[in-house]
Amino acid sequence: MTEEEFRQKAAGVTTLEMFLNTLQDPEGLIDFCNLRELSLHVHVLPRAVGLTRMTQLQRLCMTDVGLQSMVGIQECTALMHLDLSQNSIPEMDVDVLSRLTNLRCLWLNQNRISRIQGLKPLNRLNTLWLARNAISCICDELEDNAALTDINLAATAIGNFRDIPKLSRLRLLSSLALGDAHFGDSPVCALCNYQTYILFHLQQLNVLDAHVISDGARHMAEATYMKKKMYYNMRIKTIKRNTSNVLRK
């Protein structure tokens, strides 16, 4: 087969999967310019190369290939599903993500990410999985992602309830995982009243940590939260009253 014949055949391929291969020259992928789906499960591929002409690519999976950066994916502007799990990516690249405005699903599980960022332009994003990363807070990074329905932050470093109420702004959010059987639990899952607090503040949820929420559990959480809130308010008033009495004496 001549080089020209190869290029013509490559241009006609729409789906390509490479599994347990050694990709000697990743730049050779550039001839597959009309791909819609690409899955690379090769031995070592620290950089995303050969993707610059894949402007029609809708689904890209590069898992467990030793990827160290998201750079190189930004030209794939038609991407709807991106899976870069089980790599060594240190950060969510703002410049790359800003170009991927068609994304519906983003999986970056098991990387070295410590901060959520770069998602504000992705207003079509409905699935976000960042499990088993070093993320310790959500902050306000998801407030513009109103289309989100499924978030997985299991086995992250989130250890308090501080950011949970902010997720109430995501009215379409139906599934949240801060712990699951596959990835493990985040520290917040070990806090007292974890489920009660989550269900009270995020009443739009249907699934928490892979468990379907029943109406009974939802009502119980609301009743328990209100009882505890009344109890602690009474305790605060009692302490203030006792302190005032001591100061008068």
Protein architecture, described:
The chain is of the alpha/beta class and 249 residues long. Helices cover 22% and strands 15% of the residues. The protein has helices at residues 3-11, 94-97, 194-201, 215-248, and strands spanning 15-19, 37-41, 59-62, 81-83, 105-107, 127-129, 150-152, 175-177, 179-180, 184-185, 207-208, 211-212. The strands form 2 sheets. A 10-stranded mixed beta sheet has the order 1-2-3-4-5-6-7-8-11-12, with no helix packed on it. The protein has a two-stranded antiparallel sheet with strand order 9-10. β11 (207-208) and β12 form a beta hairpin. α3 packs across α4. The termini are far apart. The model has no long low-confidence stretch (mean pLDDT 90).
Structure at a glance:
The chain is of the alpha/beta class. It has helices at residues 3-11, 94-97, 194-201, 215-248, and strands spanning 15-19, 37-41, 59-62, 81-83, 105-107, 127-129, 150-152, 175-177, 179-180, 184-185, 207-208, 211-212.
